[in-house]
Amino acid sequence: MSQYHALTLEEAVAYARELPNLFAPDAELSVREIGDGNLNLVFHIQDATSQKSIIMKQAVPYAKVVGESWPLSLERARIESEALQLHESLCPGLVPHVFAYDHDLALTVMEDLSDHVIMRRGLSEGNRYPLFAGHIGEFLARTLFFTSDLGMDQQQKKENVRRFINPDLCKITEDLIFDDPYTDSPNNSYNPLIEDAAESLRTDTALHLEVALLREAFLTHAESLLHGDLHTGSIFVTEESTKVIDPEFAYYGPMGFDIGAVLANLLLNLAAQTGRMPDEAARVDFQRYLLGTVRDVWDVFETTFTKLWEEHCVDRIARTPGYREVYLKKVLRDTAGFTGAKMVRRIVGLAHVSDIEGIEDPEVRARAERLALAIGRALILKGRQVESIEEIIATAEQAAGLA
Q: Is 201 in contact with 348 (CB distance < 8 Å)?
């Protein structure tokens, strides 16, 4: 198996048997293909006797959601594997462990998280995760600080920028988030009942200006190594555990992009609950839980990041009084804008979120979609003026009638 080809189920089992220190030679292995993403094959392999299991993730050379007409480099598999290992070194326990990586097959073998659930699904079912904000806030602070010019040797950081150049997947982000929703793109897809709202996105010059500035930041601000696609579908959770997966979009970019991705998906779920929870009191209570989680994610990030700066900042001039406050205000404002951009793209762009897409009645779904667009648009427009996380929360509260 020295040259790339998409593995069959039988080949996946044969490969697993050859991995050292994982399965007994006579293990009775079962395999199933569980990938439901847009870019990869994912195999679940389990030993019937010991119940030990692993995940094998193989990149394919095109975007599955479109087909072979959208080719993609297999180099993203290396980027994902190296990002996972780097993240584990910085945040033990918050990412799956990587057992092996095969460059020729663009294949990563990692810890199985079948005892967790995808956070998007859990939130859609109305479940709460009391430790999530603390976990993800710490993950964001540590991964973003220690891969930046603040937390690592700046020449080594430049080497890392080169190591994690990821043009194919960045191109997806550049188009699907910062271009397509604001023009009549063939990639767009949305509920026809919100045609007027989609049209208004295409004609709002003030909105386009803010999106252009966000796009510029995404293209040029190599602040930290980002996960690059940190939505609730890339997070496995239980009430006690949080595991961040799928960093194949990893590259060096603006910190607020990763933080905004987390907040955007919490707010998308808030919008979805208008069509998921018929009991008003229960819905409002859950929406307030989501807003509290937004607050807590930022607060934990800011507190942890500040402590890391105080204890581990390697740049003498960055310790100048007042600089940290200016720096974090910029990260907050970037976060607000990117939160809005991520929300808008999930309503009118190529790939939607099941939180909202799973609402069967198109009129009920349209109400959730309009709410998500209202929050997203407002955050894009006011992002550069935001002074605190409370303004982001107030924007969502007002749009949702919770103020």
A: yes
342 and 261 in contact (C-beta within 8 Å)? yes
Q: Is residue 389 part of a domain?
A: yes
- Output b/e per residue, 192-209; b: 16+ Cβ within 10 A: eebeebbeebeebeebbe
What domain range is 349 assigned to? 117-400
**36 Ramachandran zone, left/alpha/beta (phi>0; psi -120 to 50):** alpha
CA distance 70 to 62: 5
Count of domains in the chain? 2
* 184 found inside a domain: yes
315-359 confidence digits (pLDDT tens)? 999 999 999 999 999 999 999 999 999 999 999 999 999 999 999
Assess whether 90 and 204 both reside in one domain: no
Percent of the chain exceeding pLDDT 90 equals 93
Instruction: Evaluate if pTM is beyond 0.90.
Output: yes
The residue out of 66, 95, 111 marking a domain boundary is 111
3-state secondary structure of 184: coil
Q: Are residues 292 and 387 in the same domain?
A: yes
Whether residues 272 and 186 fall in one domain = yes
Residue in the structure block whose two tokens are 């293209």 = 219
Q: Are 258 and 228 in contact (CB under 8 A)?
A: yes
Strands 117-118 and 224-226: unpaired
8 Å CB contact between 164 and 157: no
| Choice between 394 and 65, residue whose per-residue pLDDT is larger | 394
Among candidate residues 348, 371, 373, the one with its CA nearest the CA of residue 183 = 348
Q: What is the pLDDT of residues 150-165, one digit of tens each?
A: 999 999 999 999 999 9
